[in-house]
Amino acid sequence: MTPGLKFSLFAIALALAAAGGYLAGGLRGDGHAGHTAVPASTADATPGERKILYYRNPMGLPDTSPVPKKDSMGMDYLPVYEGEDQDDGAVAVNPARMQALGVRVARAERRVLEQPVRAVGRVEVDERRIHDVAPRFEGWIEQLHVSAVGDPVRAGQPLFTVYAPELASAAEEQRIADTLAGRLAGGDDEARAAAERLAGATRERLANWQMHGGGTARRSFAAPVSGVVLEREAVAGMRFEAGRTLLRIADLSSVWVLAEVYEHDLARVRPGQPATVRLDAWPGEDFAATVDYLYPTVDPATRSARVRLRLPNADGRLRPGQFARVHLATGEAAPVLAVPDSAVLDGGERQSVLVEEGEGRFRPQAVRIGRRDPEWVEILDGLEDGARVVVAANFLIDAESNLRAALAGFTAGEQRAPAYRATGTLDELYDDGSVSLSHAPIAELDWPAMTMEFTLAAPGLADGIAPGSAVRFEFEARGPGEYVVTHIEAGHGAEH
């Protein structure tokens, strides 16, 4: 193990020392971090009391003791109880402390996940319910019955009265044609047919002008639908041309909401889906809507597509232009294995949960997660249906588990490093924590006598030894070409 890695693990242990000390005492139910209990090797445990196996360094250093002791800073070594020395990261929690810390568990269960798509939009007029009032002939407005934008109108309600010379001319032509056809009813067939053609042409022209029931010089235009006036061009006394829109009326009994949905959510949106709309004007109230249409283009600037929703508006509370928040329900019908969202400990590349094993023991379990909804997370692998997982205070248990795993890995690394003993002469000490040694042959490594540099495990390891002194030392091979002196002392019998 390199000095840098050793320092990093020490820093981890130091950062978790407070949590480790608290949990070591709090989670075990002893009420304090320091202990003066008699170790199991020297006294028998009383009935119901757990057996102490050994004491570990409170700062996470790879040092244990069979009896209570203090470190160089005066901190008590922490006891390790029977059953807590396993290397699976499991943590035992005293029932009293579970209640004090608020530890809660829940079962993994199969359920249908709701995967909402959230979007924002605005209320708009239903374009299919807009009607323009535009005469198909020219004339003058003699009287205006609706004079302001926003006025409500009823179907059939008079809007304005017009005078049109073309209507007077058509009315006279129809009167003459009808009279002529009546006089020739029993006369010449050819003349009668000509009179009927003239009368038919006049009626067709009036029908094209939408003037049914005969022509007169003055006609009143009625509202085609019930709604409100969106636009008004009509002014009393004004002259208008054929085809000019004088009034625009919208039926607001049903409105649209145009919402922007991000590109990555488009696959989960389809026409006919139910939706919920909320408006700032009525906080806390949900309006039921339906996805009516998904527009075929994506805005290259916002990477979003427009979705149209249809809402009933019989009471007229929804007004065009209002800001809307849209919630699209896109959950799948098939249930999946899921746990509460608070149960998942997300480390970025690795996710895990704490599984209750009974008798106050909790074990970290790596899982593979899938879809999420506001309260639940799908578990794809690593957990069985019905497993009990921690959903509250799990970060405290996880902190103790991580500390134990770090210490176990640290100690294991120390034990795996091959160690060797040798004698020689200390040639020189360097400021970077290394030392030059002329050592005797080392049979285990098939090394001849030579001079080489070693790294010191601790900066002050060789303090008090003068260059040129004969020494006995121990070192470890912690990697290819990496040899670390773990112990050195001045001594006799060095060979060259």
TrEMBL record:
CzcB-like C-terminal circularly permuted SH3-like domain span: 337-397
Gene Ontology CC: membrane; outer membrane-bounded periplasmic space
Pfam families: Beta-barrel_RND_2, BSH_CusB, CusF_Ec, CzcB_C
Similarity remark: Belongs to the membrane fusion protein (MFP) (TC 8.A.1) family.
CusB-like barrel-sandwich hybrid domain location: 133-250
Phylogenetic classification of the source organism: Bacteria, Pseudomonadati, Pseudomonadota, Betaproteobacteria, Rhodocyclales
Origin: domain of life: Bacteria
SUPFAM superfamilies (alphabetical): HlyD-like secretion proteins
Presence of the UniProt keyword Signal in the record: yes
Protein's name according to its UniProt entry: Efflux RND transporter periplasmic adaptor subunit
Domain CusB-like beta-barrel: 254-330
Record key words, sorted: Ion transport, Signal, Transport
GO molecular function: transition metal ion binding; transmembrane transporter activity
Organism: Pseudothauera nasutitermitis
Gene Ontology process terms (BP): copper ion export; plasma membrane copper ion transport
